[in-house]
Design brief:
Strand content: over 45%
Largest sheet: 7 strands, mixed
Order of helices and strands: EEEEEEEEEEE
Shape: globular
Helix content: under 10%
Length: about 120
């Protein structure tokens, strides 16, 4: 059974930082690109960032580029999202996803999400 478990969300003042983790089990972790996505209230889930299976290439949504950093540790089956200079508009539930195809990361597996709230 594949499980992705996110942690690290919380409430932070504007300009603050949070570090999210996503621990995977039940799959061969380094066979998958990993992605972070978010869903704000009343909005559709959107792409935030992805990282290739070996960590060589990363992609970011325009509004988070330069503020967020995605990384992974294949030995720990864990993906990370370091979020700096948080803004109120970053408020959302953040989900990690495991993607098993080439090209655009379309997750085959999702975590349950972790709430991030940026207060003004």
């Amino acid at each position: 059974q594949v499980r992705l478990v996110e942690s690290g969300g919380g409430l932070v003042q504007a300009g603050g930082s949070l570090s999210l983790s996503c621990v995977a089990s039940g799959l061969t972790f380094d066979n998958y690109a990993m992605g972070w996505f978010r869903q704000a209230p009343g909005k559709e889930r959107e792409f935030v960032s992805t990282i290739t299976w070996n960590g060589d290439t990363t992609y970011y949504e325009h509004s988070v580029k330069g503020r967020f950093t995605i990384s992974r540790d294949n030995a720990k089956n864990t993906a990370y999202l370091q979020m700096n200079s948080l803004k109120p508009e970053d408020t959302a539930i953040y989900y990690c996803g495991a993607c098993d195809g080439a090209g655009t990361c379309v997750p085959s597996y999702w975590g349950q999400g972790t709430q991030v709230t940026g207060s003004s």
